[in-house]
Amino acid sequence: MLEQYLDINPEVAAALAAGKPVVALESTIISHGMPYPQNVETALRVEQIIRDNGAIPATIAILKGRLKVGMTPDEIEYLGKAGLDVIKTSRRDIPFIVAKQVDGATTVASTMILAAMAGIKVFATGGIGGVHRGAEQTFDISADLQELANTNVAVVCAGAKSILDIGLTLEYLETQGVPVIGHQTDTLPAFYTRESDFGVDYRLDTPEQIADVLKAKWAMGLKGGVVVANPIPEAHQLDRAMIDEVILDALAQMDDQGISGKASTPFLLAKVAEKTKGSSLKANIELVFNNAKLAAEIAVEYVK
Ligand code: PSU
Ligand code: MN
């Protein structure tokens, strides 16, 4: 049934069949999260980092209506160049992109869905979507959170960005039974900075300990994902007061321009990059590399 829609890259399929570690990667971060050509360079480097750490990368997107688990470098280049012209595709969008046979860049939510279809358990990205600031008025809550509630994939990220309401995001995850693990930290990282004002649910210090939790959770049939929050390396973090101010400014501009819904996150990311003159982009790239390494290490432990 699924084969009618799903194309698993032969290298990825062989790895999965042999019980070897595989790490999923999303494509909205390529099309909507970073400018060209840094997006493509980053995506290819991330794949190499995963290989260097003993796992096989599977970058995920929808191309001409086919669900692609594992893209070729040419496909990544194509998607990165197309950028914002590619449709940002979350759970609700998948059937339309497939039926129309067009291209879709997968968010955390839809990447989790496709990863789960293929049997991939570990996924690396930069940041997850969450409960937006002002959500008590707008109801803007990323579908990523609901996917984490339902789909059995661990998402390694650098915590939640303060374009979101971090406290409400944690409350939502708690309600949905999604554990938030801090990798070598007691504090939830805030993407560009190693710390936020919030704690994590559990601190674990090694990939092995994290893999043990995943095994226990899914072996018992406790459905849903896990957030593994991995702080940006010290040398690359940004100044917290500076980034907080930039984000407040970007949020005010978003309101002024009446931007809402699925356009919010890409707008805020682009504004922050513009206002920090690229230092946020550099930090973003470095934290993704760091997450790719940890995700590969967790995937290696998970298959043991
Ligand atoms: N946060 C980032 N970079 C990103 C995204 C979030 O720091 O590129 C992307 C991810 O693909 C995430 C999506 O799944 O934005 C969330 O969008 P929304 O809030 O519209 O669900
Ligand atoms: Mn939203």
Automatic annotation (TrEMBL):
UniProt entry keywords in alphabetical sequence: Glycosidase, Hydrolase, Lyase, Manganese, Metal-binding
Enzyme class: lyase
Gene3D superfamilies named among the record's database cross-references: Indigoidine synthase domain (3.40.1790.10)
Residues holding Mn(2+): D140
GO molecular function, one term: hydrolase activity, acting on glycosyl bonds
Origin: domain of life: Bacteria
Record-linked SUPFAM superfamilies: Indigoidine synthase A-like
EC code(s) of this entry: 4.2.1.70
Cofactor detail note: Binds 1 Mn(2+) ion per subunit.
Entry binding sites for substrate: K88, V108, S142, A143, D144
InterPro entries on file: Indigdn_synthA-like, PsuG
Annotated catalysed reactions: D-ribose 5-phosphate + uracil = psi-UMP + H2O
Active-site residues, record numbering mapped to chain: E26, K161
Cofactor(s) demanded: Mn(2+)
Family membership: Belongs to the pseudouridine-5'-phosphate glycosidase family.
Task of the protein: Catalyzes the reversible cleavage of pseudouridine 5'-phosphate (PsiMP) to ribose 5-phosphate and uracil. Functions biologically in the cleavage direction, as part of a pseudouridine degradation pathway.
Assembly description: Homotrimer.
Entry protein name: Pseudouridine-5'-phosphate glycosidase
Species this protein is from: Shewanella nanhaiensis
Highest classification ranks of the organism: Bacteria, Pseudomonadati, Pseudomonadota, Gammaproteobacteria, Alteromonadales
